[in-house]
Amino acid sequence: MRISITVAKDVSENFPVVLRGKDLLESLRKAKEYGYSSVELHLEDIELKEFLTLTRVIEQEDIHVSVLGTGLAYVKEGLSFSNKDDFIRKEAVKRVKKFIEVASFWGSKVIIGSIRGRVRQLNEKEVYIKLIIDSFKEVLDEAEKNRVTLLVEPLNRYETNFINKVEEGLEFIKNLSSEYLKLHLDTFHMNIEEDNIKEAIEKAKSFVKHFHFADNQRKYPGSGHINFEEIKEAIINIGYSEYIGIECLPLPNAETVAKESLKFLRGLFLS
Ligand code: LER
Ligand code: MN
Predict the structure, then answer these.
(1) Which parts of the sequence belong to the Xylose isomerase-like TIM barrel domain (predicted)?
(2) pTM, 2 dp
(3) Beta bridge partners of 181
(4) Residues 37-53: pLDDT tens digits?
(5) Which of 42, 105, 256, 262 is deepest in the core (most CB within 10 A)?
């Protein structure tokens, strides 16, 4: 089982990222110091200069970037696939395409979480869903050209009303039918949305290509009351061998989260 840790810069208190100082390079080095050779980067945007600097440090420190998160472009700038404003929607597509290009250099996958947007008015559900699907088709085209996997992450109902449950995510990716569109499951969201987490994971089978682990209070796995033993069984049953990303709040502090999460996951999967 491969494990990675979330890194971002300048995020709000309740954004679930562990390493979050002002200096990304410092966070990458901290990840290494705490025992991680892989990180998940959650970026609002990326410019050439930053890409080149990050590439140099990633190579020097022998770090792999498992996935790129795109949610900050939505949280900080309001970019989304469902925005009725053509300019904003096209900017969202453009931003994701840029991340796909970066991901192709780093061998990463790209998460499509909150940036996919939501249905703003229920009486216009079809309109919003068409905007989302059309945007997905555009970014998928880029993903296929670059051989980069896009990950649809079901999010709980308090964050979106479009794809909350694992089965909704499955139906969505099956309809778009691309070998570069897969599912990404997050234990925090599943704990809110699923009747039975183990069964939900087992139904998603080999479509799952990434996991986020956090406990029910969005603190580090093992610190709350989610049944990770059951989740482990499901993960083994579906033959999952991709990354588990530690995506949680840095409580009580990032170092404790990083170290306790590693200890917990090693104990879980070695027992
Ligand atoms: C948001 O709740 C989440 O789970 C993140 O993966 C989004 O970037
Ligand atoms: Mn997540």
Answers:
(1) 28-266
(2) 0.97
(3) 150
(4) 999 999 999 999 999 99
(5) 42
